[in-house]
Amino acid sequence: MSIAAMPSFPTGFRWGVSTSAYQIEGAAGTDGRGPSIWDTFADTPGRIADGSSGEIACDHYHRYPEDIALMADLGVSAYRFSVAWPRVQPTGSGAANPAGLDFYERLVDGLLDRGIDPVATLFHWDLPQALEDTGGWLNRDTADRFAEYADLVADRLGDRVRLWITLNEPFIHMSLGYGTGEHAPGRALLFDAFPVAHHQLLGHGLAVAALRARTAAPVAIANNYSPIRPAGDTPADLAAVAAYEALHNRLFTDPLLGRGYPTELGFDQSAVRDGDLAVIAAPLDVLGVNYYNPTAVRAAEPGSPLPFDLVPLQGYPRTAFDWPVAPEGLRELLGWLHGRYGADLPPIQITENGCAYDDLPDADGRVHDPDRIAYLDSHLRAVRAAIDDGVEVTGYFVWSLLDNWEWAEGFTKRFGLVHVDYPTQRRTPKSSYAWLREVIAAAERTPAR
Ligand code: FCB
């Protein structure tokens, strides 16, 4: 993997790392934080692969100075973190908990001191449990609560956060949280989960307005995308591809970019009220793209409740999560966004990309992760190729800075550039960290058009 051969990136390209609150902070009961749906879910037997929770996670709440130092040493120009809504509003409504905001203020100021742009996601899936108790995102009121919460955070940090991201992956939150029940809050409503899409998008639009009233910083959303491949070539397989593409790639992006909801899925749209689509289509400054892998689908079996079946994509190396490694899918996806949305597409930042491998320290305590280097190298080349194809991509964030608590997988999946020994909380930069530091330093020495 020669760094010298890595193609150069445009001047001002943003190099970053991503994390989220519940996955790294720990301190679940500290400084007035209220319970979130993930505390409840993780406490439910059988929900998490190793029976763990994010109660301590990487203890980032207390160790953030060390983690900022790791980022400064890595040379990133930005850090994407999320704000835990239950720290700011322990019951999801009402006055702010000042101690919760104080933590994020310490974090943001610590980043700025080291020349790192704070990029704040407002919702990365950790809804206050009190809001779930009134219906969560099935309840339209949650969209209004989200805008109030956005206002409280922007009131404190609006002068220092450099990029705001309203929601993280509303598709994954809807589909795994409310569609299949694999994630919190653990509801299995299949297509009856559609109001969760609409209320998240409405909350996004209302939060954009709240943020604009407090700050001139750019505003984005981070969506998960996946190129869809047919597992067969019958007309029914191709129809399944179209249906899954409408669900995964268009359900959130079409309305955000002014095209309304895709109609093919036949959702009951009674949750959509007059004026909502205009709120949702508020102009965005950046589109956050989270990319991991393509998805293969085939026609559903007769009698299936869904119009497609998801199947393993054949013919690719796989990560420890069993996800296929397909960097060309990222170039394809960026080209698809560019082609489909044209002039309506804002500049893109890759807000997440990365891989899980079973990286463990060797006898000398070093952690070698050549598979991660190969993954990141190939995906960065795909980004560069997409830029050459004419797509405006202005940043790339690796998921993740640290090994962390991977939702229903608990601590069994390691995505970090930095290894975390959970019992001691010792951080050990992996070889991918050293590699990325060289890539960033080389890119900043020789920026290109
Ligand atoms: C994304 C999530 C992130 C992490 C990665 C592996 O879907 O946004 O929190 O779990 O996957």
Note down, in words, how this protein is organized.
It is a single chain. The protein is α/β, with parallel strands linked by helices and 449 residues long. It has one domain (14-445): TIM Barrel, CATH 3.20.20. Helix content is 38%, strand content 15%. It contains 15 helices and 13 strands. It has helices spanning 21-24, 37-42, 60-74, 85-88, 98-113, 129-132, 141-157, 170-180, 194-214, 235-250, 253-256, 276-280, 328-341, 370-388, 431-445, and strands at residues 14-18, 78-82, 117-123, 163-168, 219-225, 228-230, 286-291, 295-298, 309-311, 348-352, 393-399, 418-421, 426-429. The strands form three sheets. It has an eight-stranded parallel β-barrel, surrounded by four helices. A three-stranded mixed sheet has the order 6-8-9, with helices on one face. The chain has a two-stranded antiparallel sheet with strand order 12-13. Helix 8 (170-180) packs antiparallel against helix 9 (194-214). The longest helix has 21 residues, at 194-214. The protein is globular, with a radius of gyration of 21 Å. The two termini are 23 Å apart. The relative contact order is 0.15. The mean pLDDT is 97. Bound molecules: beta-D-fucopyranose (FCB). The site of beta-D-fucopyranose has 12 residues, from loops.
